[in-house]
Amino acid sequence: MAEEMTFAPRSEILSLEEIELVAKAFATLGVKKIRLTGGEPLVRHNIMSLVENIGALDNLTELTMTTNGSQLTKYAQQLSDHGVKRINISIDSLQSQRFKTITRTGDLTQVLAGIDAACSAGFQRIKLNAVILKGRNDDEIMDLVNFAISKNIDISFIEEMPLGLIDEHDRALSFCSSDEIRAYISSKHSLTASEITTAGPSQYYTLEGSDTRIGFISPHSHNFCHLCNRVRVTVEGRLLLCLGNEHSVDLRAVLRAHPGEIEPLTQAIIDAMVLKPERHYFDLDNEPQIVRFMNTTGG
Where does the chain cross the membrane (predicted)? Predict the structure, then answer.
């Protein structure tokens, strides 16, 4: 079944105040980096107040965001002013009709204008994220690379994660590995493995004659679980210990049983860490074990 856009009832999602308390609890426990992601975080009402408050947390050294870029003409400068240092923009195609088909409603012109706004806003780094599938957009690999070079920004190619039930393509047949993409780019540009890391799963390469970095995120072909120290809190307050597993803890229940209290929340987070699995296991030939989609995972 193809994915449909649905929205959770307001009562089931965390308020901005609850999200801020969760962020404060993690910062209190020593977390130095927080990323706001989606869905699309910038469509949330009064999102700038949350960004400003999280950006001002003691002990936090980096606040970042992943966005679809549709709201950046409005918010890019405010995000930079409120302490967002790096921003990731998801874009799988530079062809207007294909982009609309992939995103279902996306306006490529609006997103490209948002990328330009981000480039003018003073972020330390801007990175594009692209999921490449054979028969869908694998003919645009070099277009995306050259676009990133023209904007002097980075780009990461991400292997598709088998989350959610779909019928729009066969995951095993459409899968495009990081090795395949890197080999193709290497036939056009000189790539050099980089020791640069951003405390994330990307393996970066530098391009000769350019400041653009090419990243590869490879949950299938090059499992990075042994390096992972990340967790995610969904908009419903579910603490996911791994995107590729269903191990989770209900922080919303803790928040609402102890309104405004940080101690029960920090203890729940500490207790949850023992559930973090050793690794994920993806099999493209079988039905996915995780039925939630990435855009409903959020965090």
Answer: none
Are 124 and 87 in contact by the 8 Å Cβ rule? The answer is no
Q: CA 239, CA 246: separation in Å to the nearest integer?
A: 10
Q: CA–CA separation, 208 vs 84, rounded Å?
A: 29
Query: Taking Cα atoms as reference points, which of 117, 38, 130 lies closest to residue 79?
Result: 117
Structure tokens at 282: 């993806």
SS3 100: helix
Tell which residue, 138, 184, 192, has the closest CA to residue 160. 138
Give the position of tokens 């400003």: 52
Is the pLDDT reported for residue 289 higher than 80? no
Q: Where are the domains of the chain?
A: 1-28+231-299
Sheet holding 62-67, edge to edge: 33-36, 62-67, 84-90, 125-131, 154-158, 213-217, 203-207, 191-193
| CA distances (Å), origin 204, targets 87, 178, 281 | 16, 11, 24
Q: Tens digit of pLDDT for each residue in 197-251?
A: 655 677 899 988 899 999 998 765 455 455 556 788 999 999 988 765 667 889 9
CA-closest candidate to residue 252, choices 267, 239, 271, 266:
239
DSSP state of 116: H
Q: Which two tokens stand for residue 78?
A: 């405010």
State the amino acid at position 49 in one-letter form.
S
DSSP state of 62: E
Give me the amino acid identity at 163. Answer: L
Q: Which residues pair with 206 in a beta bridge?
A: 192, 213
- The pTM score is 0.83
